[in-house]
Amino acid sequence: MPDVEQAPPSYHRKERGGRLSTSVKLAQGVGAIPDTIKNWVFHTFVLLFYSQILGVNALLVSLALSLSIIIDAIADPWIGSISDNLHSKWGRRHPLMLLGSVPLGVCFYFVFMPPPGLSHLELFWWLVSFMILTRIFLSIYFVPWAAIAAELSDDYHERTSIMAYRFAVGWFIGLLFPVITFGVVMANTPEHPVGQLNPAAYPTMAFIGAILMTSGALATTFLTWGQIPYLRQHSVRQSIPSVTQTIKEFRRGLENDQFRLFFMIVLIASAISGTTQNMSIYMATFFWQLGSDDLRWFGLIGVGAIIAFPVVALLQRWIDKKFILMMSATMSLLAGVVVVGLRFLGIMPENGSDLLLTILIIDGAFFAAMEVIRGVISASLIADILDQHELNTGYRQEAMFNAAVVFCVKATSGLGILFGGLILSLINLPVQSPPSEVPQDTINLLGLLVGLCLPVFHIFPIMMVRHYKITRQVHADIRQALDERRRTSA
Asked: How would you class 1 by CB atoms within 10 Å of its CB: exposed for 0-12, middle for 13-18, buried for 19 or more?
């Protein structure tokens, strides 16, 4: 029997008196810890650990990473649809967050704990299995958590403030954890002068990461439990969505022209970033020849992130969000390619010098500042598009919209990781070799492809941002229309 189009659901929530408190913003921001650690560790170490240390073919490892991401990406919209339609006395978000919190840390730990004696093919399936499990449980937690941020406030400016707290906590952990990893867990030793190539360090790193991920997920779940009455809930119980219904809700979101544009921008940008991010540890280890004693100093790039948080709050009061997004994305692009280009021009200091390390840290701090601004504004844009979507359709699909964005990020970054493996195979980077023994032609080719050629393609999504139409005034009109509709309905 064909599906019958139903009327939009009705929602209710307790009206909040006054503005959102700082403690609530911080409590919601703590939830960024699990995804921050997972992203950094998976992008930095999985390919390096399984390829350079365990000796598995880089292309096979990249295939495992890509499979896990694509399968996870397919599950995200369904998880988003479940969260949007969930009806319980604890709301639409928190039960799923609680369900995913503990298993994600356990599965993350086992990614780096394969049993000894496995063949390369068995290592491949071990990696695929626990990568999929980690990503699925993280999605069960992360998709509803991300949706909460769009529900906490309807204010154009306050939404950016909420996102800023999310990114502030994420960047704090994203800088602290690498400092601990490179400075303590993977510190250089006489046996392993390049600490990130020490096999014994990985179980400890994975254990610390797993504890932080589960703790962060549980903390934000319980600290925001008191906000459940202020989040939208269904007035009538909804059924668990089928695959067909999930596809229909996904398509409904893409029918919004502004969300469709944003989706395509993220789709293209993620395909490029998926390659460059996964290759960043190779650039640091082989192109710049940085050891763990050098990499621990990159915690100083947090200065750029700290400066960016008050700056983004000021910028959005003077400039529309789309122009801030274009500016920050362009600056991020330049920060990535300039230092590599100067190396090929013979202007950068030699590897191993203190001046080179200083320049790379300053460049990293500038890049961090631009990425914070870009990330905060991007997340705030989704919340604004959700208001337009509600005005046009009557549906509030916070989880589905976030899941759709996560879907395209994961699916295309999975292909990006596969491209990373292809690049390593193309340049024929030796396995289990110290940087000093890698041919210079191979290193130059690595820098040319990853440091210069790939980032330039970011120009295309940057130019697409020009077509975004929800300005400050347009959003004010949308909010006025929604408020009038609610008063009339009441």
From this structure: exposed
Which DSSP string do the residues of 280-336 spell out, in sequence order?
HHHIIIIIS---HHHHGGGGGGHHHHHHHHHHHHHHHHHS-HHHHHHHHHHHHHHHH
CATH number of 30-227+243-489: 1.20.1250.20
Rounded CA-CA distance 397/406 in Å is 14
| pLDDT band (50, 70, 90) for residue 2 | very low
Instruction: Find how far residue 235's CA is from the centre of its chain.
Output: 33
- Non-local (6+) Cβ contacts of 35 within 8 A are 138, 142, 170
Q: Are 388 and 224 in contact (CB under 8 A)?
A: no
d(CA 16, CA 44): 42
- For 309-368, write each residue's pLDDT tens digit: 788 877 877 888 888 888 888 888 888 788 999 999 989 999 888 899 999 999 888 888
> 3-state DSSP helix/strand/coil percent for the chain, to nearest 5?
80, 0, 20
* Phi, psi values for residue 389, rounded to 5°: -65, -40
Mean pLDDT throughout 260-267?
Answer: 84
Residue 84 CA to residue 325 CA, distance in Å, equals: 28
| Residue among 461, 314, 359, 380 at smallest CA distance from 160 | 380
Identify which of 259, 293, 47, 274 has the alpha carbon closest to the alpha carbon of residue 188. 293
- Its pTM stands at 0.67
Contact 420, 42 (CB under 8 A): no
pLDDT in tens, 268-323: 887 777 777 767 878 888 888 888 778 878 878 878 877 887 888 778 778 888 88
In sign, the C-alpha dihedral spanning 273, 274, 277, 279 is negative
| Domain boundaries along the sequence of the chain | 30-227+243-489
Phi, psi of 457 (to 5 degrees): -65, -10
Beta strands (DSSP E) in 46-106 are none
Residue at token pair 């990985």: 202
Averaged pLDDT of the chain: 82
